[in-house]
Amino acid sequence: MLCAVPLVCAYVDMLCRHLSLRIRVIGAFFEGTPANEEAAKFTDYEAFVEEARKKKDPFVLESWALTWSTVVLSAAIIVYGIETINQTAQDSEAIGIAFILSGAIGLIATIRVWYEYRTRAKALETLAQQQKAAKTPANP
Question: Does 125 map to a domain?
Answer without folding.
Answer: yes
